TrEMBL record:
The lineage of its organism: Bacteria, Bacillati, Actinomycetota, Actinomycetes, Micromonosporales. Residues 353-436 form the DUF7586 domain. Residues 20-332 form the Beta-lactamase-related domain. This is CubicO group peptidase, beta-lactamase class C family. It comes from Micromonospora saelicesensis. It holds the Pfam family Beta-lactamase. InterPro entries: AmpC-like, Beta-lactam-related, Beta-lactam/transpept-like, DUF7586.
Length: 457
Protein backbone atom coordinates (compact mmCIF):
# COMPACT_ATOMS: atom_id res chain seq x y z
CA UNK A 1 0.00 0.00 0.00
CA UNK A 2 1.36 3.40 -0.96
CA UNK A 3 2.11 5.58 2.11
CA UNK A 4 0.92 8.70 0.25
CA UNK A 5 -2.56 8.61 -1.34
CA UNK A 6 -2.43 10.10 -4.81
CA UNK A 7 -5.54 11.48 -6.55
CA UNK A 8 -6.45 10.40 -10.04
CA UNK A 9 -5.42 12.62 -12.91
CA UNK A 10 -8.19 14.91 -14.24
CA UNK A 11 -8.09 13.10 -17.59
CA UNK A 12 -8.61 9.75 -15.85
CA UNK A 13 -11.50 11.07 -13.80
CA UNK A 14 -13.18 12.41 -16.92
CA UNK A 15 -12.75 9.05 -18.66
CA UNK A 16 -14.36 7.32 -15.67
CA UNK A 17 -17.30 9.73 -15.65
CA UNK A 18 -17.74 9.27 -19.39
CA UNK A 19 -17.80 5.48 -19.08
CA UNK A 20 -20.23 5.66 -16.14
CA UNK A 21 -22.53 8.05 -18.00
CA UNK A 22 -22.55 6.04 -21.23
CA UNK A 23 -23.20 2.89 -19.24
CA UNK A 24 -26.16 4.43 -17.44
CA UNK A 25 -27.65 5.77 -20.67
CA UNK A 26 -27.09 2.60 -22.71
CA UNK A 27 -28.40 0.43 -19.88
CA UNK A 28 -31.39 2.73 -19.28
CA UNK A 29 -30.74 2.56 -15.55
CA UNK A 30 -32.65 4.91 -13.23
CA UNK A 31 -29.38 5.37 -11.36
CA UNK A 32 -25.84 4.00 -11.23
CA UNK A 33 -23.18 4.67 -8.61
CA UNK A 34 -19.57 3.50 -8.83
CA UNK A 35 -16.22 3.68 -7.09
CA UNK A 36 -12.58 2.91 -7.82
CA UNK A 37 -10.20 1.83 -5.07
CA UNK A 38 -6.44 2.18 -5.37
CA UNK A 39 -3.89 1.11 -2.76
CA UNK A 40 -6.67 0.38 -0.29
CA UNK A 41 -8.47 3.73 -0.56
CA UNK A 42 -11.34 5.06 -2.66
CA UNK A 43 -9.92 7.49 -5.21
CA UNK A 44 -13.13 8.08 -7.17
CA UNK A 45 -16.84 7.86 -6.29
CA UNK A 46 -19.56 9.17 -8.58
CA UNK A 47 -23.15 8.58 -9.60
CA UNK A 48 -25.28 9.09 -12.72
CA UNK A 49 -29.05 9.34 -12.87
CA UNK A 50 -31.14 10.05 -9.80
CA UNK A 51 -32.80 8.43 -6.80
CA UNK A 52 -35.69 10.46 -5.41
CA UNK A 53 -34.48 13.45 -7.39
CA UNK A 54 -30.87 13.31 -6.19
CA UNK A 55 -27.68 11.95 -7.75
CA UNK A 56 -26.70 8.81 -5.81
CA UNK A 57 -23.70 9.03 -3.53
CA UNK A 58 -21.51 6.65 -1.58
CA UNK A 59 -23.96 6.40 1.34
CA UNK A 60 -27.01 5.20 -0.62
CA UNK A 61 -27.94 1.55 -0.17
CA UNK A 62 -28.55 -0.80 -3.10
CA UNK A 63 -29.19 -4.52 -3.03
CA UNK A 64 -26.02 -6.43 -3.98
CA UNK A 65 -27.42 -9.89 -4.75
CA UNK A 66 -24.86 -12.66 -5.12
CA UNK A 67 -21.96 -10.56 -3.85
CA UNK A 68 -23.47 -11.81 -0.57
CA UNK A 69 -21.89 -15.18 -1.42
CA UNK A 70 -18.39 -13.75 -1.12
CA UNK A 71 -19.19 -12.51 2.39
CA UNK A 72 -20.56 -15.94 3.28
CA UNK A 73 -17.41 -17.61 1.93
CA UNK A 74 -15.32 -15.44 4.27
CA UNK A 75 -17.34 -16.74 7.24
CA UNK A 76 -16.83 -20.35 6.17
CA UNK A 77 -13.10 -19.90 5.63
CA UNK A 78 -12.78 -18.31 9.06
CA UNK A 79 -14.18 -21.55 10.48
CA UNK A 80 -11.70 -23.52 8.41
CA UNK A 81 -8.76 -21.40 9.57
CA UNK A 82 -9.89 -21.87 13.19
CA UNK A 83 -9.85 -25.65 12.72
CA UNK A 84 -13.60 -25.94 13.21
CA UNK A 85 -14.05 -27.68 9.84
CA UNK A 86 -12.19 -28.72 6.70
CA UNK A 87 -13.17 -27.97 3.13
CA UNK A 88 -13.12 -31.72 2.49
CA UNK A 89 -15.67 -32.39 5.24
CA UNK A 90 -19.08 -33.60 4.07
CA UNK A 91 -21.84 -31.17 4.95
CA UNK A 92 -23.58 -33.80 7.08
CA UNK A 93 -20.67 -33.79 9.51
CA UNK A 94 -21.61 -30.26 10.59
CA UNK A 95 -25.19 -29.89 9.36
CA UNK A 96 -26.96 -33.25 9.51
CA UNK A 97 -30.36 -34.04 8.10
CA UNK A 98 -30.27 -32.45 4.64
CA UNK A 99 -30.64 -34.11 1.24
CA UNK A 100 -27.19 -32.79 0.28
CA UNK A 101 -25.24 -34.20 3.20
CA UNK A 102 -22.58 -35.85 1.03
CA UNK A 103 -21.57 -32.57 -0.59
CA UNK A 104 -18.28 -31.25 0.76
CA UNK A 105 -17.92 -27.77 2.19
CA UNK A 106 -15.38 -26.86 -0.48
CA UNK A 107 -17.63 -28.11 -3.29
CA UNK A 108 -20.49 -25.96 -2.01
CA UNK A 109 -18.21 -22.91 -1.95
CA UNK A 110 -17.01 -23.58 -5.51
CA UNK A 111 -20.40 -24.62 -6.95
CA UNK A 112 -19.10 -28.08 -7.86
CA UNK A 113 -21.44 -30.13 -5.64
CA UNK A 114 -23.82 -30.69 -8.56
CA UNK A 115 -26.84 -29.23 -6.76
CA UNK A 116 -29.84 -27.53 -8.35
CA UNK A 117 -29.36 -23.93 -9.46
CA UNK A 118 -32.51 -22.55 -7.82
CA UNK A 119 -34.86 -23.41 -4.98
CA UNK A 120 -38.03 -25.23 -6.08
CA UNK A 121 -41.35 -23.42 -6.25
CA UNK A 122 -42.01 -19.74 -7.00
CA UNK A 123 -38.95 -17.67 -7.89
CA UNK A 124 -37.25 -17.21 -4.54
CA UNK A 125 -35.88 -13.76 -5.35
CA UNK A 126 -39.39 -12.25 -5.64
CA UNK A 127 -41.22 -14.25 -2.97
CA UNK A 128 -40.95 -14.17 0.83
CA UNK A 129 -38.79 -16.68 2.64
CA UNK A 130 -41.84 -17.78 4.65
CA UNK A 131 -42.72 -19.93 1.63
CA UNK A 132 -39.54 -21.95 2.33
CA UNK A 133 -39.44 -22.37 6.11
CA UNK A 134 -37.15 -25.44 6.13
CA UNK A 135 -33.99 -26.49 4.32
CA UNK A 136 -36.01 -29.29 2.74
CA UNK A 137 -38.07 -26.58 1.03
CA UNK A 138 -34.89 -24.98 -0.28
CA UNK A 139 -33.55 -28.21 -1.77
CA UNK A 140 -36.67 -30.05 -2.88
CA UNK A 141 -36.89 -33.79 -3.34
CA UNK A 142 -34.11 -34.28 -5.90
CA UNK A 143 -31.42 -31.61 -5.42
CA UNK A 144 -28.67 -33.51 -7.24
CA UNK A 145 -28.59 -32.65 -10.96
CA UNK A 146 -24.94 -33.46 -11.74
CA UNK A 147 -22.41 -35.91 -10.29
CA UNK A 148 -20.38 -34.14 -7.58
CA UNK A 149 -17.11 -32.61 -8.66
CA UNK A 150 -17.50 -33.01 -12.40
CA UNK A 151 -18.49 -29.51 -13.42
CA UNK A 152 -19.21 -26.01 -12.22
CA UNK A 153 -22.96 -25.65 -11.77
CA UNK A 154 -23.95 -22.46 -9.97
CA UNK A 155 -26.19 -23.27 -7.01
CA UNK A 156 -28.03 -20.68 -4.94
CA UNK A 157 -29.43 -23.37 -2.58
CA UNK A 158 -25.84 -24.51 -2.00
CA UNK A 159 -25.08 -21.17 -0.35
CA UNK A 160 -28.28 -21.37 1.67
CA UNK A 161 -26.82 -24.58 3.09
CA UNK A 162 -23.54 -22.82 3.88
CA UNK A 163 -25.43 -20.10 5.72
CA UNK A 164 -27.19 -22.76 7.79
CA UNK A 165 -23.81 -24.40 8.40
CA UNK A 166 -22.32 -21.16 9.77
CA UNK A 167 -25.36 -20.68 11.97
CA UNK A 168 -25.14 -24.20 13.41
CA UNK A 169 -21.38 -24.15 14.08
CA UNK A 170 -21.39 -20.64 15.56
CA UNK A 171 -24.69 -21.04 17.41
CA UNK A 172 -25.83 -17.66 16.13
CA UNK A 173 -27.73 -16.35 13.09
CA UNK A 174 -25.36 -16.01 10.14
CA UNK A 175 -26.26 -12.34 9.71
CA UNK A 176 -25.17 -11.60 13.27
CA UNK A 177 -21.98 -13.60 12.75
CA UNK A 178 -21.32 -11.56 9.62
CA UNK A 179 -21.84 -8.28 11.46
CA UNK A 180 -19.52 -9.17 14.35
CA UNK A 181 -16.79 -10.98 12.42
CA UNK A 182 -16.60 -9.06 9.14
CA UNK A 183 -18.68 -5.89 8.83
CA UNK A 184 -17.73 -4.22 12.11
CA UNK A 185 -13.97 -4.89 11.83
CA UNK A 186 -13.95 -3.55 8.26
CA UNK A 187 -16.04 -0.48 9.18
CA UNK A 188 -18.91 -1.48 6.89
CA UNK A 189 -21.67 0.16 8.89
CA UNK A 190 -24.09 0.50 5.97
CA UNK A 191 -24.18 -3.18 4.92
CA UNK A 192 -27.33 -4.86 6.24
CA UNK A 193 -29.73 -7.74 5.63
CA UNK A 194 -32.70 -5.39 5.23
CA UNK A 195 -32.67 -1.88 3.73
CA UNK A 196 -32.03 1.12 5.95
CA UNK A 197 -32.71 4.62 4.60
CA UNK A 198 -31.43 6.18 2.50
CA UNK A 199 -31.78 3.38 -0.03
CA UNK A 200 -32.72 3.09 -3.68
CA UNK A 201 -35.98 1.60 -4.93
CA UNK A 202 -35.58 -1.34 -7.28
CA UNK A 203 -37.19 -0.95 -10.70
CA UNK A 204 -37.89 -2.97 -13.81
CA UNK A 205 -37.48 -0.90 -16.95
CA UNK A 206 -39.90 -1.67 -19.78
CA UNK A 207 -37.89 -3.08 -22.72
CA UNK A 208 -39.66 -0.97 -25.36
CA UNK A 209 -40.78 2.14 -23.47
CA UNK A 210 -39.09 4.44 -20.97
CA UNK A 211 -41.37 3.56 -18.06
CA UNK A 212 -40.72 1.85 -14.73
CA UNK A 213 -42.33 -0.88 -12.64
CA UNK A 214 -41.46 -1.23 -8.94
CA UNK A 215 -39.95 -4.58 -7.95
CA UNK A 216 -40.69 -6.28 -4.61
CA UNK A 217 -37.91 -6.21 -2.00
CA UNK A 218 -38.62 -9.33 0.04
CA UNK A 219 -36.83 -11.02 2.92
CA UNK A 220 -35.75 -14.29 1.33
CA UNK A 221 -35.39 -16.17 4.62
CA UNK A 222 -33.22 -19.29 4.40
CA UNK A 223 -32.11 -18.27 0.90
CA UNK A 224 -30.67 -15.00 2.22
CA UNK A 225 -27.01 -16.19 2.18
CA UNK A 226 -27.33 -16.48 -1.61
CA UNK A 227 -28.24 -12.84 -2.23
CA UNK A 228 -29.95 -10.88 0.56
CA UNK A 229 -27.48 -8.13 1.48
CA UNK A 230 -27.88 -4.40 0.93
CA UNK A 231 -24.81 -2.19 0.85
CA UNK A 232 -23.34 1.09 -0.36
CA UNK A 233 -20.58 1.82 -2.81
CA UNK A 234 -18.47 3.17 0.07
CA UNK A 235 -18.84 -0.06 2.05
CA UNK A 236 -18.12 -2.22 -0.98
CA UNK A 237 -15.04 -0.11 -1.66
CA UNK A 238 -13.83 -1.11 1.81
CA UNK A 239 -14.66 -4.73 1.02
CA UNK A 240 -12.76 -4.59 -2.26
CA UNK A 241 -9.69 -3.31 -0.40
CA UNK A 242 -10.03 -6.31 1.91
CA UNK A 243 -10.27 -8.65 -1.10
CA UNK A 244 -6.94 -7.27 -2.31
CA UNK A 245 -4.89 -7.13 0.89
CA UNK A 246 -6.80 -9.21 3.44
CA UNK A 247 -7.07 -8.10 7.05
CA UNK A 248 -5.79 -10.21 9.94
CA UNK A 249 -8.82 -9.19 12.01
CA UNK A 250 -11.02 -10.92 9.47
CA UNK A 251 -9.04 -13.27 7.23
CA UNK A 252 -5.31 -13.76 6.63
CA UNK A 253 -4.09 -12.45 3.25
CA UNK A 254 -3.05 -15.97 2.22
CA UNK A 255 -6.58 -17.24 2.80
CA UNK A 256 -8.00 -14.37 0.77
CA UNK A 257 -5.54 -15.28 -1.98
CA UNK A 258 -6.82 -18.87 -1.81
CA UNK A 259 -10.33 -17.57 -2.51
CA UNK A 260 -8.99 -16.29 -5.84
CA UNK A 261 -7.50 -19.63 -6.89
CA UNK A 262 -9.61 -21.55 -9.43
CA UNK A 263 -11.57 -24.22 -7.57
CA UNK A 264 -13.86 -25.48 -10.32
CA UNK A 265 -13.36 -26.41 -13.97
CA UNK A 266 -14.22 -23.67 -16.45
CA UNK A 267 -16.90 -24.23 -19.05
CA UNK A 268 -15.41 -25.24 -22.40
CA UNK A 269 -17.27 -22.38 -24.07
CA UNK A 270 -15.95 -19.71 -21.67
CA UNK A 271 -12.32 -20.32 -20.81
CA UNK A 272 -11.79 -16.70 -19.68
CA UNK A 273 -14.00 -17.07 -16.62
CA UNK A 274 -13.89 -19.34 -13.60
CA UNK A 275 -14.78 -19.64 -9.94
CA UNK A 276 -12.71 -19.87 -6.78
CA UNK A 277 -14.03 -20.12 -3.23
CA UNK A 278 -16.92 -17.66 -3.23
CA UNK A 279 -15.28 -15.50 -5.90
CA UNK A 280 -15.82 -15.25 -9.63
CA UNK A 281 -12.70 -15.06 -11.79
CA UNK A 282 -12.33 -13.21 -15.08
CA UNK A 283 -9.34 -12.95 -17.40
CA UNK A 284 -9.60 -9.75 -19.41
CA UNK A 285 -6.90 -8.46 -21.74
CA UNK A 286 -4.24 -10.35 -19.82
CA UNK A 287 -5.42 -9.07 -16.43
CA UNK A 288 -6.87 -11.51 -13.87
CA UNK A 289 -9.87 -10.03 -12.05
CA UNK A 290 -11.62 -11.58 -9.08
CA UNK A 291 -14.75 -10.61 -7.19
CA UNK A 292 -18.44 -11.19 -7.80
CA UNK A 293 -21.40 -9.88 -9.69
CA UNK A 294 -24.87 -9.76 -8.19
CA UNK A 295 -28.48 -9.21 -9.11
CA UNK A 296 -31.86 -9.26 -7.45
CA UNK A 297 -35.15 -7.98 -8.86
CA UNK A 298 -34.63 -4.24 -9.27
CA UNK A 299 -30.86 -4.26 -8.68
CA UNK A 300 -27.50 -5.17 -10.23
CA UNK A 301 -24.03 -4.86 -8.73
CA UNK A 302 -20.43 -5.90 -9.27
CA UNK A 303 -17.11 -5.86 -7.45
CA UNK A 304 -13.86 -6.62 -9.27
CA UNK A 305 -10.33 -6.41 -7.90
CA UNK A 306 -6.91 -6.77 -9.48
CA UNK A 307 -4.34 -7.37 -6.73
CA UNK A 308 -1.47 -7.01 -9.22
CA UNK A 309 -2.63 -3.46 -9.91
CA UNK A 310 -3.78 -2.76 -6.31
CA UNK A 311 -7.08 -1.70 -7.90
CA UNK A 312 -10.74 -2.42 -7.25
CA UNK A 313 -13.95 -1.20 -8.85
CA UNK A 314 -17.56 -1.24 -7.65
CA UNK A 315 -20.76 -0.64 -9.61
CA UNK A 316 -24.36 -0.62 -8.34
CA UNK A 317 -27.59 0.13 -10.20
CA UNK A 318 -31.30 -0.04 -9.45
CA UNK A 319 -32.83 -1.98 -12.33
CA UNK A 320 -33.60 -5.64 -12.95
CA UNK A 321 -31.92 -6.05 -16.33
CA UNK A 322 -30.18 -4.04 -19.03
CA UNK A 323 -27.08 -2.73 -17.26
CA UNK A 324 -24.06 -5.10 -17.50
CA UNK A 325 -22.63 -4.15 -14.11
CA UNK A 326 -19.76 -6.63 -14.33
CA UNK A 327 -18.60 -5.26 -17.67
CA UNK A 328 -18.91 -1.69 -16.48
CA UNK A 329 -16.91 -2.36 -13.30
CA UNK A 330 -14.19 -4.13 -15.30
CA UNK A 331 -14.05 -1.20 -17.72
CA UNK A 332 -13.64 1.30 -14.87
CA UNK A 333 -10.82 -0.74 -13.34
CA UNK A 334 -9.10 -1.13 -16.69
CA UNK A 335 -9.39 2.59 -17.39
CA UNK A 336 -7.33 3.41 -14.32
CA UNK A 337 -4.89 0.52 -14.77
CA UNK A 338 -4.03 1.55 -18.33
CA UNK A 339 -4.02 5.32 -17.86
CA UNK A 340 -2.18 5.29 -14.52
CA UNK A 341 -0.10 2.10 -14.19
CA UNK A 342 0.79 1.14 -10.67
CA UNK A 343 3.94 2.77 -9.30
CA UNK A 344 5.84 0.17 -7.29
CA UNK A 345 6.81 0.80 -3.69
CA UNK A 346 10.48 1.65 -3.13
CA UNK A 347 12.87 -1.26 -2.82
CA UNK A 348 14.12 -1.73 0.71
CA UNK A 349 16.55 -4.25 2.18
CA UNK A 350 15.19 -6.91 4.51
CA UNK A 351 15.04 -5.70 8.13
CA UNK A 352 16.58 -9.02 9.23
CA UNK A 353 17.33 -12.41 7.74
CA UNK A 354 18.15 -15.87 9.05
CA UNK A 355 21.71 -16.75 7.91
CA UNK A 356 20.46 -20.20 6.95
CA UNK A 357 18.05 -18.58 4.50
CA UNK A 358 20.95 -16.83 2.83
CA UNK A 359 22.38 -20.30 2.14
CA UNK A 360 19.25 -20.97 0.08
CA UNK A 361 19.12 -17.67 -1.79
CA UNK A 362 20.20 -17.51 -5.37
CA UNK A 363 20.08 -19.67 -8.50
CA UNK A 364 18.84 -23.25 -8.54
CA UNK A 365 18.23 -25.64 -11.39
CA UNK A 366 15.56 -28.20 -12.04
CA UNK A 367 17.46 -30.25 -14.58
CA UNK A 368 18.70 -27.56 -16.99
CA UNK A 369 15.91 -25.07 -16.16
CA UNK A 370 17.09 -22.06 -14.11
CA UNK A 371 15.18 -20.80 -11.08
CA UNK A 372 15.91 -18.23 -8.39
CA UNK A 373 14.98 -18.56 -4.71
CA UNK A 374 14.60 -15.38 -2.67
CA UNK A 375 13.83 -14.81 1.04
CA UNK A 376 10.92 -12.40 1.54
CA UNK A 377 10.35 -9.74 4.19
CA UNK A 378 7.48 -11.75 5.71
CA UNK A 379 9.68 -14.83 6.28
CA UNK A 380 8.37 -16.68 3.25
CA UNK A 381 10.39 -17.84 0.22
CA UNK A 382 9.68 -17.08 -3.43
CA UNK A 383 10.73 -19.64 -6.08
CA UNK A 384 10.66 -18.07 -9.54
CA UNK A 385 11.42 -19.71 -12.91
CA UNK A 386 13.72 -17.63 -15.11
CA UNK A 387 12.77 -19.15 -18.46
CA UNK A 388 9.21 -20.34 -18.06
CA UNK A 389 8.10 -23.00 -15.62
CA UNK A 390 6.35 -23.52 -12.32
CA UNK A 391 7.05 -21.12 -9.51
CA UNK A 392 5.55 -20.87 -6.06
CA UNK A 393 5.53 -18.97 -2.82
CA UNK A 394 6.52 -21.05 0.21
CA UNK A 395 5.65 -20.66 3.86
CA UNK A 396 7.71 -22.06 6.76
CA UNK A 397 6.28 -25.11 8.52
CA UNK A 398 6.55 -26.09 12.17
CA UNK A 399 8.94 -28.96 11.41
CA UNK A 400 11.56 -26.73 9.80
CA UNK A 401 10.48 -27.31 6.22
CA UNK A 402 8.54 -25.27 3.72
CA UNK A 403 5.18 -25.65 1.99
CA UNK A 404 4.10 -24.25 -1.37
CA UNK A 405 0.99 -22.10 -1.14
CA UNK A 406 0.14 -21.37 -4.77
CA UNK A 407 0.44 -22.68 -8.28
CA UNK A 408 1.49 -26.21 -9.21
CA UNK A 409 3.38 -26.70 -5.94
CA UNK A 410 0.56 -25.61 -3.62
CA UNK A 411 0.57 -27.98 -0.63
CA UNK A 412 3.81 -29.66 -1.68
CA UNK A 413 6.67 -29.89 0.81
CA UNK A 414 10.13 -28.39 0.21
CA UNK A 415 12.93 -30.21 2.04
CA UNK A 416 16.41 -28.72 2.31
CA UNK A 417 18.98 -31.49 1.97
CA UNK A 418 22.52 -31.13 3.34
CA UNK A 419 25.68 -33.15 2.91
CA UNK A 420 27.77 -34.69 5.68
CA UNK A 421 29.47 -31.35 6.28
CA UNK A 422 26.12 -29.59 6.73
CA UNK A 423 26.33 -27.73 3.43
CA UNK A 424 23.12 -27.45 1.42
CA UNK A 425 23.40 -29.93 -1.45
CA UNK A 426 19.98 -29.81 -3.09
CA UNK A 427 16.30 -29.07 -2.58
CA UNK A 428 13.48 -31.60 -2.87
CA UNK A 429 10.14 -29.96 -3.72
CA UNK A 430 7.48 -32.63 -4.12
CA UNK A 431 10.12 -34.99 -5.69
CA UNK A 432 11.40 -32.20 -7.98
CA UNK A 433 15.16 -32.05 -7.30
CA UNK A 434 16.71 -28.58 -7.51
CA UNK A 435 20.51 -28.37 -7.66
CA UNK A 436 23.08 -25.59 -7.60
CA UNK A 437 24.38 -26.55 -11.04
CA UNK A 438 22.39 -27.86 -14.03
CA UNK A 439 22.09 -31.63 -13.57
CA UNK A 440 24.66 -31.58 -10.76
CA UNK A 441 26.24 -35.07 -10.72
CA UNK A 442 26.78 -34.79 -6.96
CA UNK A 443 23.04 -34.58 -6.32
CA UNK A 444 20.56 -37.49 -6.42
CA UNK A 445 19.06 -36.52 -9.78
CA UNK A 446 16.30 -39.00 -10.66
CA UNK A 447 17.54 -41.35 -13.38
CA UNK A 448 21.17 -40.33 -12.84
CA UNK A 449 23.52 -38.29 -15.04
CA UNK A 450 25.12 -39.46 -18.27
CA UNK A 451 28.75 -40.29 -17.35
CA UNK A 452 29.94 -38.46 -20.48
CA UNK A 453 28.65 -35.24 -18.97
CA UNK A 454 27.92 -32.10 -20.96
CA UNK A 455 29.16 -32.36 -24.57
CA UNK A 456 29.67 -29.96 -27.42
CA UNK A 457 27.34 -30.35 -30.36
Amino acid sequence: MSPIPTPLLPETRRALVHRLATGQVAGRAPSVVAAVVRDGRPVWVDGWGTVDGRVPDGNLQYRIGSITKTFLAVLVLRLRDEGRLALTDPLAEHLPGTAAGKATVGALLAHTAGLIAEAPGPWWERTPGALRPDLADVLGGEPQVHPPGQRHHYSNPGYALLGALVQRVRGQAWGEVLRHEVLEPLGMTRTTLLPIAPHATGWAVHPWADVLLAEPAVDTGLMAPAGQLWSTVTDLARFSAFLIDGDDRVLHPDTVAQMRNPASPPEATDSDSGYGLGMQLLRRDGRLLSGHTGSMPGFVAAVWVSPDDALGAVVMGNLTAGLPAGTLAADLLQTVAEREPRIPAPWRPLPSVDPQLLDLAGPWYWGPAPYVLRPQADGFLELTPLSGGRGTRLRPTDDGGWEGINGYFAGEQLRVQRDAAGVVSHLDLGTFIFTRQPYDPAAPVPGGIDPAGWQAG
